[in-house]
Specification:
The complex is a heterodimer of chains A (about 400) and B (about 375). Chain A is an alpha+beta fold and about 400 residues long. Chain A is built from 11 helices and 8 strands. In chain A, the strands form 3 sheets. Chain A has a 4-stranded antiparallel β-sheet. The two termini of chain A are about 50 Å apart. In chain B, helix 4 packs across helix 13 and helix 13 packs antiparallel against helix 14. The chains are: A alpha+beta (about 400), B mainly alpha (about 375).
């Protein structure tokens, strides 16, 4: 490295300063990187166009409005093989993915919190059982668990003839779980409105109780009034509008089951496996979160004279939740992404419908895979945005 | 009241206080039981519920897996209910007959010694790398990341020049494929992950943007879509003559996926290195790559070794997903054997799954125990208290 002699200004040195040379080199490096990646991309597109033209496969998204022509076993919205389009099939698959993910997230969260707390139990047996559950479930691949539930449990149920009759007119056999289907009367919306009003009233009650506590230091007990409002209003509406809800029982025929609410074994197996698997990971997240609250916090709370349930509710849980929410979010994302394993047992989720059936019929691999990936990406982004929003509401408010 | 105030406000005990009962024993078998299982009514109830649960689940499980299990036989007859065995348990005979298929797939029987040799070479490399006090672990790394891949390629797919018959990958299967996919995923994802993690921290906006986009994109989509992309789109992107082999395509997908996750793990390790280390390396006049290779990465990788192993456990379990692109990994061979009409019985499937679960559990649990031990050792070394 040339060192400028004392008293001689740097500008006298003829060569450009090393700093400047470095900047030029950096820019050149980055430009080269862009060129290489861009070139590879262009080459790939060119090759794809050539190969597709060779194989006589259409391109573009024109297939979206063509008739699909294949059946889907579970449809939340109206769909028929002969008249519905590929676009419709896409929505059917997406809704199925969202359905199994949403219910799975709720079940996994409940189970995961129970097991996570159980692992911290002072009861040796409970803690051991919970950690046995976590170790066993975490170390066996999810796909194996899905196949086990589907092939060895649900498909091993009795056949149609030997259906297990459940109370209230339901049936269980290897074609699924058949429950009475609720049929909503014309005035049922009044009950829904009453329920929403009840929830709003309960929230108002909560705000009032909080304000009062801030003013007087006394916390009014609102649990029972709030529950009464949430449950009572819909019940009153239900009675006033003449019981606008009836159930239609499934009929067990010789060859199939008609009417009633059908829960496919594919759906059930996927849901059970996803919830059980993710719950094991959530349990670890919860355990770590609770352990992250320093013992001093609990001790300080009891020194202040807080009862142990209040310590838990006001001191431990709020602090633990701050640690829990970010990894919990990534577990939710994993569950949503793992729901694509539905393809192994034929539950018609987005991946199975789209990259399975639609790709087979149209052969347009690039478009179909691109759409599928974009949708999963979108779901992931929306979920993590929602969880970040929730994380912000429970974050420490700093001055 | 007046009389009260005349009394002295001093109280002296006249006789010794009655003895308190001794505190409950906390030691010994009874003390332990009382403290851990029967400390309160709620705890007693919980303990009893757990005991009932165990009594309900464990004996039938042991009966099914061991006592009533069928250990030998040639076809399904052995595993069907018979007068001698009313409720046959797990059909281990089925596993015994199909065992070599589960390990090697359709790999030619005469050439299977090559697979065994590969397993040995791999085990050697893994032990060298993971045994923290092994000598010359740097040579171990070169062996594992450079020599081993080439050696296994020659061994497994063959090299007619030196007399090894070539075996097409369509014949590979079972545990062999599971191990090949996960090991290749590991061998490629660690260097790529390091590069991506460095790219994510780069001062060059373009490099940073590429890295972030790649990492976030891959982490945002399910593995099977990445595999599917590698499997159906990759052949489209290259001239038809160069379309890679099916297994290679899956390997590319797995390596891409794993490197995005590895990048995040390495980034965590880099973030744990104090600034002073970077500054000291700069002050010594080390160039960027020498600083990374000699100062930063050795420390960062050491800190994050447990997380790397955990990522590898995830990768090992995720290899089961290569079934979507039609590759016969371990789980897929179980599925295939399950459908064998010679062994059709109500318990064949459960037995197959139990065997698969056992194999995966042993591998994954072993690795996770290793990760925990390393973590404890790191915690001790840095002076923190072991949890």
């Amino acid at each position: 490295m040339p060192i400028a002699a004392a008293g001689r200004p740097m500008a006298d040195i003829a060569r450009p300063s090393p700093r400047h040379a470095g900047r030029v080199r950096n820019l050149a490096l980055q430009a080269a990187l862009i060129l290489i990646v861009g070139g590879l991309g262009c080459g790939a597109i060119y090759n794809a166009a050539q190969n597709l033209a060779h194989a006589n496969i259409a391109h573009g998204f024109g297939f979206w409005n063509n008739t699909a022509g294949f059946d889907i076993s579970q449809t939340l919205i109206e769909y028929s093989a002969s008249t519905s389009t590929f676009g419709r099939a896409f929505w059917v698959g997406l809704l199925n993915t969202l359905l199994v993910s949403a219910i799975g997230i709720v079940l996994a969260t409940i189970l995961g919190f129970i097991i996570g707390i159980a692992r911290l139990s002072r009861n040796w047996l409970v803690a051991r059982l919970a950690s046995g559950y976590v170790e066993l479930i975490r170390n066996v691949p999810l796909l194996l668990q899905i196949m086990f539930w589907y092939n060895s449990v649900l498909k091993a149920l009795p056949e149609l003839r030997g259906s297990v009759a459940l109370p209230f007119g339901g049936f269980l056999n290897n074609r699924g779980l058949f429950l009475p289907r609720p049929e909503f009367g014309a005035r049922f919306d009044a009950v829904v409105i009453a329920l929403s009003l009840g929830i709003i009233a309960a929230m108002a009650l909560h705000v009032w109780a909080r304000r009062r506590q801030e003013r007087t230091g006394m916390r009014p007990r609102i649990l029972w009034p709030a529950l009464a409002v949430i449950v009572g209003l819909p019940v009153v509406a239900f009675i006033v509008f003449g019981f606008p809800l009836s159930f239609r029982n499934p009929d067990l025929g010789r060859f199939n089951v008609r009417g009633g609410l059908e829960i496919l074994p594919e759906f059930a197996a996927l849901l059970i496996a996803l919830s059980v698997y993710t719950a094991a990971f959530i349990a670890e997240v919860v355990r770590a979160g609770v352990l992250a609250v320093p013992t001093g916090q609990t001790e300080a709370a009891s020194a202040l004279g807080l009862r142990s349930d209040w310590t838990l509710r006001l001191v431990v849980v709020p602090q633990a939740m701050r640690v829990i929410v970010p990894p919990l979010t990534s577990q939710y994302l994993n569950l949503i992404k793992n729901s694509s394993l539905a393809v192994a047992i034929g539950y018609p989720d987005l991946f199975q419908v789209f990259t399975g059936s639609v790709l087979n019929i149209t052969g347009q691999a690039v478009e179909v895979v691109a759409i599928t990936m974009a949708v999963y990406l979108m779901i992931s982004l929306v979920t993590s945005a929602l969880m970040n929003l929730y994380g912000r509401t429970i974050a420490i408010v700093e001055r | 009241m007046a009389a009260m105030s005349d009394m002295p406000l001093v109280f002296l005990r006249q006789a010794p206080a009655a003895r308190l009962p001794p505190p409950m024993a906390r030691s010994g078998a009874f003390g332990w039981l009382r403290g851990n299982l029967f400390s309160s009514p709620a705890n007693i109830a919980l303990t009893l519920i757990c005991l009932v649960l165990l009594a309900w689940a464990v004996p039938p499980l042991i009966r099914f897996l061991l006592i009533d299990a069928v250990w030998s036989g040639h076809d399904r007859e052995a595993c069907l209910a018979s007068p001698a065995n009313h409720e046959p348990g797990a059909c281990w005979a089925f596993i015994r007959v199909w065992f070599s298929y589960f390990v090697y797939g359709f790999y030619p029987i005469a050439e299977r010694w090559r697979v065994d040799l590969f397993f040995l070479a791999l085990a050697f490399g893994i032990v060298w790398l993971l045994w923290l006090s092994a000598p010359r672990r740097d040579i171990g790394a070169v062996y594992f990341f450079l020599v081993l891949p080439i050696l296994s390629l020659i061994l497994l797919s063959g090299f007619p020049l030196i007399g090894l018959v070539s075996v097409p990958t369509t014949l590979w299967g079972g545990i062999l494929v599971t191990i090949v996919v996960s090991t290749i995923g590991m061998v490629f994802s660690l260097p790529l992950g390091i590069l991506l993690a460095l790219g994510r921290r780069s001062r060059f906006p373009v490099v940073k943007m590429f890295s972030v986009t790649f990492i976030e994109f891959v982490r945002g989509v399910p593995l099977i879509t990445v595999l599917f992309m590698a499997s159906v789109m990759l052949p489209l992107f290259v001239p038809e003559r160069f379309a890679p082999d099916k297994l290679v395509r899956a390997l590319i997908g797995v390596a891409m996926f794993a490197s995005a996750y590895m990048a995040e793990v390495v980034r965590g390790g880099l973030a744990a290195i104090p600034r002073g280390q970077f500054e000291a390396a700069n002050a010594l006049g080390l160039s960027y790559w020498r600083m990374m290779a000699l100062v930063i990465l050795p420390q960062a990788l050491r800190v994050t070794l447990p997380n790397i192993v955990n990522t590898f456990i995830g990768l090992f379990k995720d290899t089961t997903l290569v079934f979507v692109v039609g590759i016969f990994d371990f789980l897929r061979t179980i599925e295939a054997a399950r459908g064998d009409p010679n062994w059709a019985s109500p318990i064949t499937g459960v037995t197959g799954y139990a065997f698969a679960a056992l194999v995966y559990f042993i591998c994954c649990y072993g690795m996770s125990r290793y990760a925990q031990r390393v973590e404890a050792r790191l915690a001790r070394r840095s002076g923190r208290k072991e949890r």
